[in-house]
Specification:
The structure holds 2 protein chains of 2 kinds.
Chain A lengths: L2 E4 L3 E4 L4 E5 L12 H8 L8 E7 L7 E7 L5 E5 L20
Antiparallel strand pairs in A: 1-2, 3-4, 4-5, 5-6
Chain B lengths: L5 H9 L17 E7 L3 H14 L4 E4 L15 E2 L6 H21 L10 E5 L2 H16 L5 E3 L1 H7 L15 E5 L3 E2 L2 H14 L3 E3 L4 E7 L2 E7 L2 E10 L5 H7 L7 E10 L9 E4 L4 E5 L5 E7 L11 H14 L8 E11 L6 E4 L5 E5 L9 H14 L13 H4 L14
Parallel strand pairs in B: 1-2, 1-11, 2-8, 4-13, 11-18
Antiparallel strand pairs in B: 3-7, 4-6, 5-6, 9-10, 10-11, 12-15, 12-16, 13-14, 14-15, 17-18
Helix pairs in contact in B: 2-6, 2-9, 3-9
The chains are: A mainly beta, B alpha/beta.
């Protein structure tokens, strides 16, 4: 089980959270986007093997969303940061697969 | 290829079974092949087998980063069925089930294929409506399906707790009698042996580290055993589809998750069918060795770690004990996880990619094992002819652009 540090409630077990998938996916302007662009926004994912930026919500606590950097092989949580802020720099770890892919 | 039979068994008994030949070669990779299949799991080996057996394409290499059948082929819960709601899925999975029915004879390999019946339980009015609709849809698609009452469920599988006082009472079930199980390892081994006998090179411990693309066309792969040129390449790497796609410069509508399963200590025969329940979310069958094989839902966060959280197992074991109280005293021996590639519509991607000559078969989510022969059959057709077969044309990658999704998330007779 993951142990995630909620920015407002402190460290809590994974079962208290809801996972929200990949972070930093900007919604394009529907009027200015073709079908391929919309499919890319709606369905395509980097699905990174390595350090993954993702959204979590503290469902059983403060019910607030925030971002997490987590390594998808080791499950190590590397950073927790607010929604709307850019992804922080993290050291590249050994064993990263398709890093940045 | 040594033909397995009662006579070869008797002959080898005389030499204490010490002179069986190896079932497939372990060749060094050649510098170039007509077709390279990445991934020697069931689907990849089936693809190579059907390329050789049906399309006469034998200059084929199957590259495997670990050992043959050591990924999801060796980690699934071996359930086979074809009772999917939508026409496209029913056609694909039913084609696969029909191939299963003759596969042991075709491959001359005991797959321990057992059509013991798959029973999907109904726990509430909505389940009943969904099940009724699905059974009707199955029958229209010539897929065998029956709707059972609570009493019929009890008669078919007596150890189920059908008392109306349970937390999620059993209000009936759907039964596909032609569904069942097969021995997962034997499926990989059988396809490997039959493909090898037709000239396919199976190369283990050979990880693909890059895909060579020149002018929008695939030209080969880079591996830990050197560069291998190929006219056509198939990506059949359950659990790593996005990683391989990234090597070729495109993204997929896939997220990878751990799916856990576990087995109990061996018991005497107690459960003769496969039981699946959406409402309490667990599925269970008993292997020929006597172990209960138990699976359920995936862990939500993306992961490539081949392990999941204990809370997921606790949930599925709670569901199992609710359905079959006598299992509460069975000890579990081991648990594991495989990484499953899940598409937004819970249907696979089989067909062309944005790169010419590069094909993909992945995104099977939690239920790829049942499709092993059918999946290899349609991908072999796609690679051999350059165009998808009508069975896999609806499962093209461009359905995510056109919007013609095959949404089996709630319809596939199991919650994903």
């Amino acid at each position: 089980m993951l142990w995630i540090d909620c920015p407002w409630c402190g460290p809590r077990p994974e079962t208290e959270y809801r996972y929200g998938g990949e972070a930093h996916i900007a919604r394009p302007d529907p009027a200015a986007t073709d079908d391929a662009g919309w499919a890319d926004y709606l369905f395509m994912r980097t699905n990174t093997k390595g350090v993954h930026a993702e959204r979590w919500m503290h469902r059983d606590g403060c019910r607030r969303w925030f971002n997490v950097l987590r390594h998808t092989v080791s499950n190590e949580v590397l950073a927790v940061y607010p929604m709307g802020t850019p992804r922080p720099e993290t050291p590249r770890l050994p064993g990263d697969g398709a890093e940045g892919a | 290829m040594t033909k397995f039979s009662i006579f070869s068994l008797a002959r080898n008994a005389l030499s204490h079974h010490e002179r069986w030949p190896e079932q497939w070669r372990s060749p060094a990779p050649k510098p170039a092949y007509d077709v390279v299949i990445i991934g020697a799991g069931g689907h990849g080996l089936a693809t190579a087998y059907y390329l050789a057996a049906l399309h006469g394409i034998t200059d084929v290499a199957v590259l495997e980063k670990g050992w043959l059948g050591g990924g999801n082929t060796g980690r699934n819960t071996t359930v086979i069925r074809s009772n999917y709601l939508w026409d496209e899925s029913a056609a694909l999975y039913e084609h696969s089930l029909k191939l299963w029915e003759g596969l042991a004879q075709e491959l001359n390999y005991n797959l321990m294929f057992s059509q013991r019946g798959v029973l999907n339980l109904i726990h509430n009015v909505h389940d009943l409506q969904e099940a009724t609709r699905r059974v009707n849809a199955n029958r229209l698609n010539a897929v065998d399906a029956e709707l059972l009452s609570t009493d019929e469920v009890k008669a078919f599988c007596p150890i189920l707790n059908t008392a109306p006082t349970t937390r999620y009472p059993i209000m009936g079930g759907t039964l596909q009698r032609r569904g069942g199980n097969a021995r997962h390892d034997a499926v990989a081994w059988g396809f490997a042996r039959a493909a090898d006998a037709r000239g396919v090179d199976i190369i283990q411990n050979c990880e693909v580290t890059g895909i060579d693309v020149d002018g929008g066309r695939v030209t080969g792969v880079q591996t830990t055993q050197g560069a291998i040129a190929a006219r056509k390449v198939g990506i059949v790497v359950a659990g790593h589809s996005s990683v391989l796609a990234a090597m070729a410069g495109f993204r997929l509508p896939i997220e990878s998750h751990p799916l856990q399963a576990l087995v109990s200590e061996p018991l005497k025969p107690v459960l003769h069918c496969v039981i699946m329940s959406n409402g309490v979310h667990v599925y269970v069958s008993q292997s020929d060795k006597g172990e209960l094989v138990i699976g359920a839902g995936l862990d939500p966060p993306n992961s490539y770690g081949q392990r999941g959280g204990l809370h997921t197992i606790e949930d599925q074991m709670g569901a199992l004990v609710e359905l079959i109280p006598i299992f509460s005293r069975v000890r579990m021996m081991r648990s594991w996880a495989g990484i499953v590639d899940v598409c937004p519509d819970a249907s696979p991607v089989i067909g062309k990619t944005p790169v010419d000559g590069l094909y993909i078969n992945g995104g099977w989510g939690t239920g790829g094992f049942k499709a092993t022969p059918g999946s290899g059959w349609v991908l072999a057709h796609t690679i051999a002819t350059g165009e998808p077969h009508p069975l896999n044309a609806p499962f093209a990658l461009d359905r995510f652009t056109s919007g013609t999704l095959i949404d089996e998330h709630a319809a596939a007779a199991v919650a994903h």
